[in-house]
Design goal:
FAD-dep_OxRdtase_2_FAD-bd; FAD; FAD/NAD(P)-binding domain; alpha+beta; eight-stranded mixed β-sheet
């Protein structure tokens, strides 16, 4: 075992948005900080690498945001997507703290751009990173290292020394060997367990074999498992997660945001039996896109197909893979290996139920179906203009919601109700405190940024005293 006998004020485990915000916050508060990133440098940053934006409350329009987004509206949106399954006090604290995040994160070198278009409709609520998540990460790493934060890559934490809620050391495995790293405080920001297929199967069953993991293969839940085993109180349902419908042709891991499909609202979605199974036009896309992973997971063989026609081809941002195309529905069915008679019957039934209206993809329009089960509540237009297109989709898991319970100081809470003396958490590893279920675009980055900044600040304060 390597023995460097080094000791830091704050040890941050993880390398994404939450970890870097914690590291910068702690360092600016005067603490010595070590960041352990389990991935190689090229893959640093966890799921943050694939993000695009952050949802923060703000009182006025800015150079990149088209209008105000109040704390109360943010709370209403969060309540709707979680169906009230959230810690209200902690959620309201996060929302309030988010108001200062945009200025703070810009001070760390992150730049913003106006919202992307298409079905996102986020120009007023979400701030988009110039250059995307990787550019955002590069800015945070550059700032952290400039402040004197030490970063080690390929540094996997394989054990934690914790006694009655007090952290003393971490055992770290790297290409140089195994070593013990001691620190006064710990900030766990190492993500969820979505890349651990066996853990997913323990709660989802064999269907989890068909799940695709949108983000990093390094989020295996190792640190989370150790913390729970050491008496940290769990929060969240292990079957709840941020899961969206992504292109079924995506790789098993790390396909990222470019495999997500934003065209559901413009067509219909059918399963392997060519039957619709949910209202594709229930609400605007940012409030509903994250339900489709779970919906597809409940279908036979965890596969579904988004169908649309030539009228809609240019209305959404394209994904990495081109749509499957055919001049007729029957030929399209053949290319998808669907029963052509069944698909024609589904489309004919849908077309007959469509009622005329004024199509507007920016609002909850009046284009709907009548007498159809399930209905399509908005943006319903007949599929009648060749060529016809389809995307095959599978559940794409972004991150899991089972995590560590925390308080408003980002301190981990123990199963006996006490607060851990020197252990803090931020990001996906504690997101279940806010997200009991559901998701709205950009909230994951908000949770990571807010609680990362708080965790770093609090960890540094504890180390000083």
């Amino acid at each position: 075992m390597v023995d460097r006998r080094s000791r830091h004020d704050v040890l941050v485990v993880g390398g994404g948005n939450a970890a870097l915000c914690a590291a910068i916050s702690a360092r600016r508060a005067g603490a010595s900080v070590l960041v352990l990133e389990g991935a190689p440098k090229f893959y640093r940053g966890g799921n943050t690498r694939h993000t695009r934006n952050m949802r923060c409350a703000h009182d006025t329009a800015t150079g990149t945001l088209t209008g105000p987004y109040t704390e109360e509206e943010f709370w209403t949106d969060l309540t709707l997507v979680t169906k009230g399954n959230t810690d209200e006090a902690l959620a309201r604290f996060m929302i309030h703290e988010s108001k200062s995040m945009l200025d703070w994160i810009a001070e760390q070198g992150v730049r913003f751009q106006p919202s992307l278009g298409g079905t996102l409709s986020l120009g007023r609520t979400n701030s988009f990173f110039l250059g995307g998540g990787r550019a955002m990460l590069n800015a945070l790493y550059r700032t952290a290292e400039g402040l004197g934060v030490e970063v080690r890559y390929d540094a996997e934490v394989i054990d934690l020394a914790v006694d009655n809620g007090v952290f003393t050391a971490a055992t770290v495995r790297s290409p140089a060997g195994t070593e013990e790293v001691r620190a006064t405080t710990l900030v766990a920001a190492a993500g969820g367990f979505e890349a651990n297929i066996e853990w997913l199967k323990a709660h989802w069953g064999a269907v989890a074999e068909n799940f695709l993991i949108r983000g990093t293969r390094y989020n295996r839940g190792t640190v989370l498992r150790m913390l729970l085993d050491h008496g940290v109180a769990p929060v969240g349902d292990p079957t709840q997660c941020h899961a969206v419908a992504i292109d079924a042709r995506a790789p098993k891991f790390d396909g990222g945001i470019i495999t997500r499909l934003d065209c559901v609202v413009f067509g219909i979605v059918v399963n392997k039996h060519a039957r619709r199974f949910y209202d594709e036009g229930e609400d605007i896309w940012p409030k509903r896109y994250a339900i489709w992973g779970r919906l597809v997971a409940a279908q036979p063989d965890q596969i579904a197909y988004i169908l649309f026609d030539a009228k809609s081809l240019r209305l959404f941002m394209p994904s990495l893979f081109p749509p499957i195309q055919a001049p007729t529905l029957r030929e399209l069915a053949g290319r998808l290996r669907l029963d052509p008679d069944a698909l024609e019957a589904t489309v004919d039934g849908f077309n007959a139920a469509v009622r005329p209206g004024h199509f507007d993809d920016k609002t909850l329009d009046d284009c709907r179906t009548e007498g159809l089960d399930p209905p399509k509540s908005h943006w319903a237009r007949r599929l009648d203009t060749a060529p016809f297109y389809a995307y095959p989709v599978r559940p794409g898991i972004t991150f899991t919601y089972l995590g560590t319970r925390v308080d408003h100081r980002a301190r981990m809470l123990m199963t006996d109700g006490s607060a851990a003396e020197n252990m803090f958490a931020a990001g996906e590893i504690m997101a279940g405190n806010i997200l009991g279920q559901g998701y709205a675009a950009g909230i994951g980055m908000t949770i990571g940024g807010v609680f990362g900044r708080v965790a770093g600040r609090e960890a540094a304060a504890h180390a000083r005293h």
